[in-house]
Amino acid sequence: MKRCCLYLVCSWILIGAACSNSDEVVVSEDNNENVDKQQSGNVIVEESLDEPVEEDTEDQSEEPMEVLFEAIDIESYRHENIHFEVNGEKELEQRSPEDIIFPEVYTEVEGVLTFRGGPLRDSPSYGTISATEMELEEQWDFTTSANPDWGGGAGWTGQPAIVKWDNEIKQQMNIKEKFKEKDNFVEVIQGSLDGHVYFIDLETGEQTRNPIAIKNPIKGSLSIDSRGYPLLYLGDGIPQHEKFGFYIFSLIDSKLLHYIPGRDEFAYRDWGAFDGSALINRHSDSLVVGGENGVFYNVALNTDFDKEQGTIAIDPEISNMRYKIEGNDYQGIENSVAIFKNIAYFADNGGSIVSIDLENNHPVWGLPSLDDTDASIVVDVVDDTPHLYTASEVDIQGRNGNAYLRKIHGLTGEVIWEKSYPAFYNPDVNGGVLATPVLGKGNMGDLIVFTIARHRSTNEGIMVALDRQTGEEKWRWHMEQYAWSSAVAVYDKAGNGFLVQADSTGNVHIIDGDTGKVLTAKNFGYNIEASPAIYNDSIIFASRGGLIHHVKIK
User: Fold this and answer.
1) 193 and 147 in contact (C-beta within 8 Å)?
2) Comparing C-alpha atoms, which of 54, 60, 52, 59 is closest to residue 36?
3) Which of 126, 156, 187, 264 gives 20 to 30 Å between its CA and that of 57?
4) Is the Cβ–Cβ distance between 484 and 450 less than 8 Å?
5) What is the Cα–Cα distance from 513 to 406, expressed in whole angstroms?
């Protein structure tokens, strides 16, 4: 039996430097030269979007030691507008300082294991594309069952996980024998509005094992353990059965290992959905997730995984935090928590942005309410300093309002720039930004791209690419149909970026990420609210029409 342990820290230490607002927050900055490397799904891959780096061919016998981040040192907290309470403080005190830090590389497993790939929420694709004509060719579709009220397929955010399992772990799981014997087996795992989790072979579209029945509709995006352990994490979307909360399943035998009730007496809000996608710290054996009950969860999993015997167990110790922000009457974390090092970020249903120190679950700062913000925050790290990109809906404002697009200093909460775009209110399907923005890489490296629903009219939308430094608009694309689905950036080996954007009438577009020109489009018949995940040149997405699709970029 073994428990996940912390990697050894390199003998050299990162030297601290104060941030620009040093009276409130201090960050330790890396004084070593920054080396850019492509990360897709937070897995380092061989192809680089930048110049190739020559490998040191000397002494290849020893595996290189991973350098761990040094924690951001919080000297003081800004609590003048925040009231909060923490449960499980003793459990947090038992963790070492290293346990609170998320690693620079989220996972070493091939695939997309959580919403937008990792803690920065910036990598919903894995690998590169080799297409020359940029055409869309459907490989297969899979029909789910249907919930009488919600149908099947997937809704918002509904991103699948895509994982290439370690062969030894694959042999231990309840995958059908034909797939255990298959070379280069890659599994698609999709939560559905019909209340099931489906397991599908990426190549053929065949079911690889029996679905897991949650019974309640699943709206959010599930997660697979970042260590490649056979563990599945997901939450309910709508209460139609007794349990209403967050689940951890064994993927060895599909048994439920742990359940967190969402309707918790500790929560200020009596709503138990978990649309946010969990993050797993592979070094510290811990989990972070936000609930729509307005509670932030920081969980020590205490995983006991015996790879040889094919057994896995967990014994979670939960620390959680509830909060209220002055002037904000709404709690509820509907987006997926983003993390840099030991600092977590989320937005809430009132539009406040909150920063949390994972060492003690204390808020570092919280911004005043703006409007409901369900799109996940994307983190851009420049010179060891996090910058946040976030955007709001038109909901609390009422019939006529603006979606606000912002860049925020991640250590101080200072708004660096803000842009506004008018959007229409709809009580059932909000306007504004529901799609998580795209942080460009390669030839899109100076861009942040937002998709805004119900702009110009109730059925139209707009995609805008903004300069990350200034917020200046570099290009825009007027969409004939609005979109909630998050765009996904894919890159060829030369670093040229392309955006895959689905919309509310079933169109999937490919857009030149540098210019905003639409290169091709294909219609799939039904509203696509869910966000795609991409594995090399394979796009996987589900629609509200009860279908899961595999489409290749050719």
Assistant:
1) yes
2) 52
3) 126
4) no
5) 20
Beta strand segments in 279-352, E: 279-281, 286-290, 295-300, 304-306, 311-313, 317-325, 338-340, 343-347
193 contacts: CB under 8 Å, gap ≥ 6: 144, 147, 150, 151, 152, 153, 154, 155, 217, 218, 219, 237, 544
Beta pairing partners, 27: 17
Instruction: Report the phi/psi class of residue 252: left, alpha or beta, with left for phi > 0 and alpha for psi in -120 to 50.
Output: alpha
Backbone angles phi, psi at 169, to 5 degrees: -70, -40
Cα distance between residue 276 and residue 156, in whole Å: 11
What domains sit in the chain, N to C, each tagged with a CATH number? 385-479 (2.40.10.480)
Report pTM: 0.89
> Residue 509: phi, psi to the nearest 5?
-110, 150
CA separation, residue 551 to residues 76, 122, 135, 519 (Å): 50, 22, 10, 16
Cβ neighbours of residue 495 under 8 Å, at least 6 residues apart? 49, 50, 441, 442, 443
Nearest to 384 by CA among 430, 438, 351, 343: 343
Unique residue bearing structure tokens 């297409």: 131
Tens-of-pLDDT digits for all 554 residues of the chain?
333 433 333 333 333 333 333 333 433 333 333 333 334 344 433 344 444 434 444 444 344 445 567 899 998 999 999 999 999 988 888 888 788 999 999 999 999 999 999 999 999 999 999 988 899 999 999 999 999 999 999 999 999 999 999 999 999 999 999 999 999 999 999 999 999 999 999 999 999 999 999 999 999 999 999 999 999 999 999 999 989 999 999 999 999 999 999 999 999 999 999 999 999 999 999 999 999 999 999 999 999 999 999 999 999 999 999 999 999 999 999 999 999 999 999 999 999 999 999 999 999 999 999 999 999 999 999 999 999 999 999 999 977 899 999 999 999 999 999 999 999 998 888 999 999 999 999 999 999 999 999 999 999 999 999 999 999 999 999 999 999 999 999 999 999 999 999 999 999 999 999 999 999 999 999 999 999 999 999 999 999 999 999 999 99
Maximum separation of any 2 CA atoms in the chain, in Å? 65
27: DSSP letter: B
Write the CA distances from 91 to 96, 111, 291, 318, 388, integer angstroms.
11, 32, 20, 8, 29
